[in-house]
Amino acid sequence: MQDVMRILSPKQKALAINLDPHIYGTFAEIGAGQETVRHFFRAGGSSHTIAKAMSAYDKDVSNAIYGKEEKNRFVTQNRLKKMLKHEVSLIEERLDNTDTPHRKYFSYANTVATINYDKTFKGHGWVGLMFQHEANAEYSEVILHICFKENDSTLQQESLGKLGVNLIYGAFYHSDNPRRLIRSLYDDIAIDKIEIDMIDFQGPAFEYVDNRLMSLQLVKKGMTEAVIFNSEGKNMLPADILYKKNVFAVRGSFRPVTLVNIDMFENGLDLFMKDAESTPEDTVVIFEITTSNLSAKGKIDERDFLDRVDVLAKLGYTVMISNFSEYYRLVDYFFNYNIKKLGIGMGVNNLLMVFDETYYKNLPGGILEAFGKFFRNDMRVYLYPYKDPETSEFLDSENLKVNENLKELYKYFKLNDRIVDIVNHNPAYSEIYSRDILSKIVRCENGWENQVPEGVADIIKERGMFGYKKSIDLL
After folding, report:
1. pTM score, whole prediction
2. Which letter, b or e, does each residue of 33-63 get, where b requires 16 or more Cβ atoms within 10 Å of its Cβ?
3. I need a labelling partner for 319 at 20 to 30 A (CA). Which of 24, 36, 87, 177 fits?
């Protein structure tokens, strides 16, 4: 039986790095004291590791060293990157490696804002590391964004210090296993103390790392509730793209994305833009996949996950991966970023699930509490009709049947325009079902290609996605 991997304490990790004669670098910490470097000073032997430790806490001093930021904001990714690059350039400029040819340099930095006095703002920050995984190698980089969950600034500082130690240790000892590196970030830190909602790996140490898969790890491990990346696969900070925007979201399995999905999205978005009196510049479109839609036999198939994301990326869409099985949690998440208006595109079957009381047994207020969160702040559902295969009747908000005890509640939301029918749908798409398309793809049958958006069939066949056997094309 394999022994359980022993988790080292921050002091043990700091000491291990201090005793490694090949690791040498600088620390620059802004906003929460010098919490990370403190561990290295206290562990002993720090003179072999620490070239410099500083805290440019005063804003004028910080600007004099790293330059001014747009809108004079200090807790930003751009500020962190400036700090890292500046400190690395100083190491390279000032130190001669002739007598220490095996030395690997690093620069650790963070810029954070801890909880305010009134406890109305819990705080957040950026943490990063530039390092050489081998002597004289080009620098690699790990950058992450954190949100503090604790209600005391001292506790937040302590958690930040541990996180910094874990990051530095992980980079030097687990760079060949980024999943393990991510897990180790929470060594000696309870999962509910800090949220990591974005992580990004760059450089030769992570040449084969797919940052979308790394984002998925954050959600799978409970480190955050949701991650977002753009069509280029770049991890995005949710606050950067959602804050004070109008948001239109479509949830689906997208396995694969079909003409129905796009018809729902395009026509629903048109209605939303008019209702919200929004412009493209003020509107963010999100294609959301919940992890419950990624699981197969209780396990997430990462290859299948990337297939779905790659197809959506080809169409130019921003993708969100969340652990929100219930819609009200998705809505709650968006409004936490002070968005303006929210629209959700969904089909009839999904709306029926929203009105199913069995999903809310764990809520103290039951379905009423869920509806209070779901239909908050003038949120609207843009409903795509469903064609009954037995009667050929189109089901929409007018003839949809909900449980008897919820009829009046449903009628209330309908009469107040919280449920809006997508009337300009294309009836020709009414008999397109993703499960049928997937079945044909697996069996390499023809006839599904014209039921998916242009270009999607090509990428599925070219890359053998969703079980498609490329060899069939060669027969």
Report:
1. 0.91
2. bbbbbbbbbebebbeebbbebbbbeeeeebe
3. 177
pLDDT tens digit string along 281-307? 999 999 999 988 776 556 788 888 999
3-state secondary structure string, the chain? CCCCCCCCCHHHHHHHHHCCCCEEEEEEEECCCCHHHHHHHHHCCHHHCEEEEECCCCHHHHHHHHCCCHHHCCCCHHHHHHHHHHHHHHHHHHCCCCCCCCCEEEEEEEEEECCCCCCCCCCEEEEEEEECCCCCCCCEEEEEEEEECCCCHHHHHHHHHHHHHHHHHHHHHCCCCHHHHHHHCCCCCCCCCEEEEEEEEECHHHCCCCHHHHHHHHHHCCCCCEEEECCCCCEECHHHHHCCCEEEEEECCCCCCCHHHHHHHHHHHHHHHHHHCCCHHHEEEEEEEEHHHCEECCEECHHHHHHHHHHHHHCCCEEEEECCCCHHHHHHHHHCCCCCCEEEEEEHHHHHHHCCHHHHCCCCCHHHHHHHHHCHHHCEEEEECEECCCCCCEECCCCCCCCHHHHHHHHHHHHCCCEEECCCCCHHHCCCCHHHHHHHHHCCCCCCHHHCCCCHHHHHHHHCHHHCCHHHHHC
Q: Looking at the domain that runs over 240-429, which CATH code has it been given?
A: 3.40.50
Q: For 257-269, what is each residue's pLDDT tens digit?
A: 999 999 999 999 9
Average pLDDT over the chain, rounded to an integer? 91
**Fold that domain 10-209 belongs to in CATH:** Maf protein (3.90.950)
Are 269 and 431 in contact, with CB atoms under 8 Å apart?
A: no
Q: Where are the domains of the chain?
A: 10-209, 240-429
